[in-house]
Specification:
Length: about 775
Amino acid sequence: MSLPDPPLRRRHFLAGAAATAGAVVLPGALRPSRAAAAVPSRVTLPERGIHDTAPAADWTDGFLTGNGEYGAVLHGTPALEKVVLNHHRFVLPNGTRTVQPPDLAGRLPAVRDKALAGDYAGAAGEFAGDWTLRWTQTYHPGYELHLGTPEASGAADYARLTDFRTGEVTHTWADPAGTWRRRAFVSRADRVIVHELLPATGRTVSTVLGAHTALEGTPGSVTFRTTAKVVGRDGYLGLRGTYPAGQGAFGYEGVTRVVVAGARASVTVDGSTLVVAGAARVLLLTKLDRYETPDAWDAEPLQKALAALTADYGTLLGRHRPLHRAMFDGSSLDLGVPAADRRLSTGDLVARQNGNRSSLDLALLERMYDSGRYLFVSSSGVLPPRLTGIWTGSWTGAWADDITTDANVNLQVAGGNILSHGDAMRGYFDFVLGQLADWRDNAARIYGARGFLAPSRTDGEHGHMLHFNDSDFPGQCWTGGADWLLHPLLEYYQVTGDTAFLRDRLGPALMELALFYEDFLTRTDAAGKKVFVPSYSMENAPASTGQMLAVNATGDIAAGRHALRAAVDAADALGAEQGPGRGVARWTALLAALPDYTVNGDGALAEWSWPGLTDRYDHRHVHHLYGAWPLHEINPEERPDLVRAAGRALDLRGDENLSAHGSLHRALARARLKDGAGVHENLRKILGNDMVFRRAGAQRGGAAGPKARSRATASGATSGANSGKNSHQCNAESEIESRVARSEARSRMIEQRCWRGTVSRVRGPVA
């Protein structure tokens, strides 16, 4: 395992939108400069950020802030401001926490016999037995903090901003008395949501604060209790939610401390609300937590922690800002956009893009880069981002707003190592390594094997393989998940050379994963090559069988090959498993016995490398392109033959439902193949097919299934109807940096793979 090239302080290459190599501008790109929308003259736009001149009527249009554990969605009007409060670990218990994967290992011989005989339906039924698919625990909001200020109903000259470099969201408006301002951020230093209300000069703040729980889909099985009290001069507004008994955690809590300034300022209790009057300024400090036992909140741990905090916005921001900025400032995307275009509001940018769907709006693309970067770091901490980052205002998010591991979270963290996100990836590393014990259970109980079998979906509490059935989702047959999930950890070592990380955390995991393949690969074909059976190409089925369970899914083969090579490299670097009969010798021999990939009759890399299994091209996933991205196996320098076949496979791939994650994965694969025009076309599909929006209210509805159209939002929050499995929003999953710029920035052949002399630049260290 070789160390990476030295760090690169600036790379000039066709990042982000990727036109053909050597081009001067992106083909068909929109670059008109026009005057910005009417931003109030008193408003100073952030150097890197977003703004809008209309209030957000719904949480799905709100501006976001977060510290990787807490998240806040700010929306509403000056007369009724609303803040959705989120915690990364708020999931609704459903009894699955203690469920073990079923013991299916004894069924494997019959399953393999049936699959190899062509009875795929019989194999699927045999392998699942009487198991019923278990759903992940749904991520849910805590509650919504309401700030009622009726006298602000006549507000004008409104603007709201998010400063990506500080994590602050600001709402400002004017009335005859002057300018009013409210600003908020979530502190990384003090683990608290900080919100300050500032009046116009010579005026005071008066508002009513309440906790609102009747959010979309709030279940009747969860009960709530709101408390309001005054201690000294400070008010404390608390909300406790109790989950249904016996399903998992007991409940959760949020507490807001209300601190007022001014000689005549007061905080009083009115039922379950707090009434602020005559304040020169108001500071709101909010903490959240989740409890396992019914008495955990009796000692009022959140109230005590809040009481100990410094009640000064500037001081708290000063402690938070350098931590956040170190994570955000590592890189930037410069597409040569005119300064006037960079001052356009999100609404203007989206409207301009929608006015010409055949081209890419470069100003919007730059904004998406920064927005994705901001929201990725803001939702990365105790866990990696969920499907909607760390933010939701609904209890019924599509696909449970969970962490889906067969493309979604993989795409979310794609740029985490390369583009210098600081500590943002630590939550991902801890998440993966913290689930290895559960992955061992999966491998042992389902395959009777050592090593790891990763789940296709997780709510973050456990990593057991529970989400599968006997027909349309044989998730237990996907053996490549552990390699995909461990790959960013390997990438971290490759770009940092952190030998302690390799020795203590990553290396043992890579070598243990190799043991799974030793035990799993027990069958051979007529040529003596190992057979991956059962196998699953997420989430597709061969056209010839219509059955998801298959043999020799190309993506599974690629993952197995990479896992074994990574184990050998790690062992060599650590001086482990050396000598006859030891791991390196066994894994090297197993590598030589792995099956080759197949090129089908259309000249395309086949999705299944097994006779009789034919491609179904019209599908959102491209699991068989795993060797091109995130891996580096298929590249022009080393495997031009596979590059041609992989390119042909992408040419033939249908769009199915124009899901954004499909286009983003394809864009990354095209970039690895040095196909700039292909990258451009896939990004154009996202920006030019109504997947980017400013106002999402009309798009909301019930939970979305696989056919739901993906959408992204340049303003931040996500649509409830479109926030699910195939919806990759700007709040992490539309992170252009982590999908395209990264694919050419990393690898030991980075020098050869950089395109130079173009209009596009990524600034900052990329390694």
